Amino acid sequence: MTTNLTLVILMAVLVACGVTLLLERSLTRILVGVLLLSNGVNLFFLVASGPAGNAPVLGSVGPGPMSDPLPQAMVLTAIVITLGVSAFLLAMAYRSWQLGGDDEVQDDVEDALITRLAERDETSSTFDGGSDGELDEEGADT
Amino acid sequence: MLLLVAIHLVAAAVAPALTRLMDRRAFLVLALVPAGSLAWILAQTSTVTGPDARAVEQVTPWVPALDLELAFSLGTLSWFLAVLVTGVGALVLVYCAWYFRPGDPEIWRFSAVLTGFAGSMLGLVLSEDFLLLFVFWELTTVFSYLLVGHNPERKANRRAAMNALIVTTFGGLAMLVGIIVLGQRVGTYRIADIVAAEPSGAAVTAAIALILVGAVSKSALVPFHFWLPGAMAAPTPVSAYLHAAAMVKAGIFLVALLAPAFADTPLWRPSLLVLGVLTMLVGGLRALRQHDVKLLLAYGTVSQLGFLMAIVGLGTRNAALAGVAMICAHALFKAALFMVVGIVDRSCGTRDLRQLTGLARRMPVLLVVTVLAAASMAGIPPLTGFVAKETVFAAFEEVARTGDGTGLPSWAGWLVLAGLVVGSLLTVAYSLRFVWGVFADKDGAELPREPDAIPAGFLAPAAVLAVLSLVVGFLGRPWTTLVEGYSTAFPAGEHEEYLALWHGFELPLLLSAVAVAGGVVLHLQRYRTEVLQAQFTRLPDAERGYQWGMRGVDRLAVEVTGATQRGSLPLYLGTIVLALVLVPGFALVRQFDGLGDVVAWQHPAQAVVAVIMAVAAIAAVRSRKRLKAVILVGVAGYGMAVMFVLHGAPDLGLTQVLVETVTLVIFLLVLRRLPAYFSDRPLTIARWWRVAIGVAAGVAVGGFALAASGARTLPPVSEAFAREAYDFGGGENVVNVTLVDIRAWDTMGELSVLVVAATGVASLIFLITGRTGRVRPDEAIDHPSRWLRAGRTLSEERRSVVFEIVTRLVFHMIMVFSLFLVFSGHNEPGGGFAGGLIAGLALMVRYLAGGRHELDEAAPVDAGHLLGLGLVIATLSALAPLAFGGEVLQSAVVDGTLPVLGYVKLVTSLFFDFGVYLVVVGLMLDVLRSLGGGIDRGAEAEAEDDDPSSVPDAAPAEGIS
Q: Model ipTM?
C-alpha cells in the first residue's frame, strides 16, 4: 500500500508539539497540546486508511477509486468529541483561574500527604491499630 | 428446600415493615419462618436418617454455562444441623421479642439481618453444590459483620466487626481456592460426588489444606480464635445464635461433611487434632480469667469449638457418632446459657460477675435453667453433654488402643485424649465459675440496680433448651440410630460405640470423674489460678500478631502509594507517553520489516499545507502569549481541513472547518478573562525533558504509521460499505450512512460523551444544575432595539449596528441551512454533526452581536432539555425498528410522491441524525451560555464588587449563584 511521506512527517511534528505542550502545567497550553495531538492522530487515520481518492459519495464524478469511508467516519466522531473535550478543559481553566488566580495544575495535596507519611514510616489515617475501648452493644450515649 | 431459603429471605425483606407495624412483637411472627422450616425438616426424618438413610435432593439450574446449580440436599448430617439452625433460630427470634426494649429504633435493621442470616445458614447446611455452599458461607459472614456492628457508634465495636469480617473472609477466600482446585480435579462441584470420588494427590492435599483454613477461621480455632470474643459486641441473641449454635458450627459442619473422604489426607488429622486440643486448652484457660460472664461464655465457646473440631476431624465411625452428639449438646446448652446472660444483663443492668450477687434467691427458675445447661456443658450425668463427652472419650480411647483405622500411633492417641481430659477439666471449672459468678452471694458485691422481674416469654426459650438438654440425655438409643445415616459412611471399627448414660465402669467414666473432680478443685482454688494466670499475660497473642499483620499491610499500602502516586500531572502523563514510546517502540525496532511503497505526496498542495501547519505548530509551542498560541493552533486546524479535502474527505473538511471556528471563538471567550501571557518560567531542565519526550513520541508515532501503512495485507472491511450504504442504508454519502446506520452504535456512544461534556461545562461555570440562566432584564427587552430584541442590554460602546443588521439578516437563513444539511446529509456532504455545528454558529453570532440576553431570546430553552431531547430521539429511533420486527438501529426506506414536493425518499435513520443534530445544538448552547454568558456575569459581578458606585453596562448583574 502506498505511504504518503508528507503526511507521516507532518503527523510526527504535530504529535511531538502536542506531547510537549501536554506535559506543561498551564491548562491553556495543555489544551493547545490536546488540539495539536488530536490533529496528529486524525492524520494517522488518513495515513493508515490508504491513498487519497474521490469523495466517498456515490455518483460523484471522477476517475479512480474512492477514499476509504470507515476511517473518515471515525475521524468525524473524533473531531466532534475533541470539541466537547476542549470546551470542558476551557471551563476547567476558567474555573481554576477564578479560584486560584491562574490556570496551572498544581501537585495533588493529598498525594503529598501520603508521600510524607511514607517518608516518616507512618500508617494511614484510617488505620485503627489500637485495642482500647469497651465493647458494648448499647448506644454510646446510654 | 430452595423454597425454605427463599421464604427466609423474603421474610428478611419484609421484616423492617413488620417491625414498624408491630414493634418488637414482629419477632414472634418472624419466628414462624424457621419454625415452619423445622416442621418440614422433621417431616423428612424417617427418610434422611437412620441406617437406611438416603438424601432428599432438589436441583434447580442457575447458571448452566458455568455448571452452577442451586443444588440442595438433606442428608443425615445436614438434617441435624438444619434442625439446630431452624430450631434454635425460632427460639432466638422469640427471645428477641422480649430482649429488645419496646420502641428500639434499631430493630428494623436487626430483625431483617437476623432473619436473613437464618436463611443463609439454612442454605449453607442444605447446599449440595460446593460453590453454592461458598456463597451462603460468605453471606453468613456478611450478616455476622452487620450484626456484630449493631452499634456502630463505638470504635471498639466497629473494630470487632471488622476483625471478624477480615479473619473469616480471609479464610473464606482460601477456601474458595481450595474448592475450585478440588472441583476442577474431580470434574464436579457436587459435594456428594466429590466425597464419593475420594480423590488424592498433591493438588488435592493442597486444596484440602486451603479448605481447612476456611473451616478453622470460621469456627474460631487457634490462631484465628480472637475474633469470636470480639464478636460479643453483638446483641446477646446474636451471640446465642451465630456465635454458639449456628455460624461457628459451619466450619465444624464442613469438616464433618468432608471427613468420610478426606480424613486420611496427610495434613488432615495432625492439624485438626493439634489445633483442636490447643484451642480447647487456650479457650478454657482464658475463660477462667474473665469477669464479664458473656466473655466467659465466648471463650468457653472457643474452647468447645476446639473440642468439636478434634472429634469430627478424627474420622472414625465412633468419632462421627460422638461428634454429631457433641454438636447437638453444645448447641442446646450454649444457646441456653447465652440467653441466660441476656436475661441477667437486661434485668440487672450488668454482666460483671464482681457485681452480680444474690440472684440465686431472687431468680430461682433462672437458676434451675442455668444449672441444667451448665451441668450439660460440664458433662455431669444425666445430661446430654455427659452422654456426648463419654462417647468422645471412648472414640479416642479406641484410637489410642487400636488405631481404629486412623493409622495414628498409640502415643498420639493417648496424648490427645489427655489433652481433651484437661480441657474438660477446665470446662467444668468455668462452668462452675459461670454459675457461681451469676448467682452466688459475694461479699462486697452490689447490683447496680434492683433486678426487674423476668417475663415468662423471655425465659421460655432458654428453659426449652435446658429441658431438652436434660431429656435428650435419656434418649441414647434412638439418637444413635438417627446418626447412623452419617456414621456408617466411615469404616466399621472393632468396637461399635453407642450413645447411652451408662456404659459400665470403663475408662471414659473414670476420665469424666477426673475432669469433674479436677474442675471442682480448680474452681475452689480460683483466686490462686487467677494470680497464676496473671503472670502469663506475656505469652504470644494471636490478636497482637493479627494487628501487626494489618499494620504491615497498611504500611505497605502507604509506601507503594507514596512511591507511585506523586500527584504531579506532568509526571503521570510523561510516564504514560514514555511507556508508549518504549514498549511498542521496542517492538517496532525489533520487528520492522521494511517500508511499503512510499511516495513523497499524492498532491503537491499537501506539501505546502504541511509546511504551513508544521510551522504553526512549532510556533504554538514556543509562544509565550496565550492568544498567539490559540491563533496558531487555529491555523493548524484549518490546515487539517484542507488536508481532509485533498485526501477525498469532504465531510471531514466541512466538520473540521466548523469545529475549528467554534473552538477558536470559545477559546477567545475564555481568554478574555485569563492573563495575556503564560506564567514566566525559566528555561529549566524540565523543559528540555518535555521537548525530549515530545520528540521521542513524535518519532515513535511516525514509525508506527510507516509500519502500519506498510503492513496491510488484506482489503479493508469497508470495501463493501459503498454498496451496503445504498442497498441497506438508502443513502449515497457513505460516511454519513456509516455514522447513522452501519456504525451507529459508535455514534450513540459519542452522543453520550457530548451530553456529559456539556453538562460538565455548565456545572463548572454555574455550579448549579439549572442552566437557563434566564433572568430577563425586562426594561431593556420591552423596548427592543431596531434590529435585535436584546440589543439594548449591551452598553453603547459595545454595540455595532452593522453587526446587528447582518445578524438579523443571516440568522434565519443559517438556521434553515443547518436543517437542510441534516436532510441532505444522507446523500451529499453534511449530516447531523455539520448541521448542528452550523446552527450553533448561528446562535454564536446572535450572542456576539447582542450579548447573553440576545442568546436567551434566540434560544429560549434550557440546553439540558435540548441535549436530553436529542438523546431521547436518537434512542427511540434506534429502538423503533424492534416494534416492526427489525433489529436495533436498522433503517427502512419509505418513498412516494407528494403533491408539492414531488418524489420523496425518506430513510428512517434521518430521525437518528436529527437526534445527533439536537445534541450538538445543545452542546453549543451550553458552551455559549457557560463560557459566554456565564463568564460575562462573573465579570459584571466582579466589576460591581470592585466599585459599588459604578453602574453596570445596562443590565443589572445577577451575580454568580
A: 0.89
